[in-house]
Amino acid sequence: MMYLSNYLEGFALGLSLILAIGSQNAFVLKQGLKNQYVFIVCLVCAFSDAILISLGVAGFGVIVKQYPQIEIVARYGGAIFLGVYAIWSFKSAFTKNHALIANAKNEISMSKAILICLAFTWLNPHVYLDTVVLLGSVSTQYQPNHWQFACGAMLASFVFFFALGYGARFLSPLFSNPKAWKVLDFVVGFIMTFIAISLII
């Protein structure tokens, strides 16, 4: 029962850290609505989280604290990337119509979708603070069973991203209207802009 508690507490904390609508989640939602590379997009996001959680539990969080340059590079690199993606989303919201149908031809290649996922994850300093530093620090309270806590947090990432990616299809009737896609593109652009600004101020 104690072991199960370790898993559940890790799952609860991991889930609470990724529930907020952020740049990564917005991209997964959008790909789910378009039904484009949903499995690989969800897998890349969840697996990246698992790697970061493992690093945090293994002690990498201490290194991040000792070398704040890592966080600074991620912060400004992430802000630039999010700013570019925001411009892309705003441009799509105001100029595109033909690509706003859920079953339309793929807009981007699989390799580009994977690279965008990786950028959203690894260029986001909040991810390092949440998964590496915070979860890594909390996991020390569960030693010698800290890896059970970590597995619970990793499972939360897999459950969340796959639920978000594949659950998005239930909204597809709404997004059969091109105006809904324009609104989504605008909201995604706003989210990216807000996060990019928050990273540099």
Distinctive features:
mainly alpha; 201 residues
List the helices and strands and how they pair.
Blueprint (H helix, E strand, L loop, with lengths): L1 H17 L4 H12 L3 H21 L1 H7 L2 H27 L14 H13 L2 H15 L6 H22 L10 H23 L1
Helix pairs in contact: 1-7, 1-8, 2-3, 2-8, 2-9, 3-6, 3-7, 3-8, 4-7, 5-9
Report on the architecture of this protein.
The chain has one domain. α3 runs antiparallel to α8. 37% of the residues are buried. It has 201 residues and is mainly alpha-helical. The protein is 78% helix and 0% strand.
Care to give the gist of this entry?
78% of the residues lie in helices and 0% in strands.
How much beta, percentage-wise? Answer: under 5%
Alpha carbon gyration radius: 18 Å
Largest beta-sheet details = none
Low-confidence stretches: 98-103
Please provide the count of β strands.
0
Structural class: mainly alpha
Number of separate domains? 1
The average pLDDT value, as a whole number, equals 80
The N- to C-terminal Cα distance equals: 45 Å
Tell me the number of helical segments per DSSP (H or I, 4 or more residues long).
9
**Element order: H for helix, E for strand:** HHHHHHHHH
Relative helix content: over 70%
3D shape: globular
